[in-house]
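Here's what a typical entry looks like (Ras-related protein Rab-7a):
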Amino acid sequence: MSNKKRTILKVIILGDSGVGKTSLMNQYVNKKFTNQYKATIGADFLTKETVVDNEQLTMQIWDTAGQERFQSLGVAFYRGADCCVLVFDLTNYKTYESLESWKDEFLIQASPKDPENFPFVIIGNKVDETSKRKVLHWCKSNNNIPYFETSAKNAINVDQAFDEIARKAMKQENQEDQINQNESRVNLSKCC
């Protein structure tokens, strides 16, 4: 048995209803796709054990409902997240326009310690026609958020996107551990 610590990462997937959040998660975790659309009610999650950059990880991937009526549940699901994935449908420009509001809503409800540097990854799902230049510009103007065009149906770039998500989440967790260690040292020096 290995003495190596297994890192657990909490990843939240957000985006409008019907963009393929559940399909992406199922393709990544179960290597399966279905054409039958079934809206997520509230939230669901799957776990996947993987190795990224020689580190063993368990990813808890939280799939949240895209309908506005379920957004009030967000605060309970978003807390403690290590990375947030914003998904839009490449064939529906309106879902791309919603990215900013999903990002803002996540930051408000999750209240991360360092919102400016919290890790996000953008996934344009349902590879088709879109203005890639506009998406890349938005990502660049939002702290160089990584961008992937995927197809959950055909398993295009799904693994690569989730590997980047894991890297971002690991970096976030390591930074938070360092901050907590520094805060503990400061508190000890004050008391003793």
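The chain has one domain: 7-191.

More examples are in the samples folder.
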